[in-house]
Known about the structure:
mainly alpha, about 0% strand, about 150 residues
Amino acid sequence: MSKAFSYSAPVAALLLALVVALAPRAAPAERADYVGSETCGTCHRAEYDKWRTSAHARATATLPGTFRRDPRCAGCHATDTLGELAEVGCESCHGAGRWYYKAAVMRDAEVARALGLTDAGEATCKGCHGSDAPSVRPFDFKEAWKRIAHGPKK
Length: 154
């Protein structure tokens, strides 16, 4: 008969500290660090389906071809700054998923964050939708969030 095993708080803290200390630090993320929105969608289906119908899912397509790999444009219109990963996908806002995307890691939010999962919010959005962005109208986070809201209800 198998007995459930749980770590004591000090052991769990030590394990988390080791994970954080040993986690690779790549800034900016390299191509191999991205898993793609489709991978995220295998577990986060509702969020993926909502993203597929959003303007973010078509962000690269709105650029003329010559600008799609220009880092000045791709930084906001693609998942990576080189434009190799078209569209503004999950990892544009939540960080490259190579180290945190597996279900076993995602079950522990603290470990997932330690391995690169970013809690995106208004500041994340303003990285591309800030006052210096070439937009016709000013960015309103509350209105924009109504169109893309996803994740756990708070």
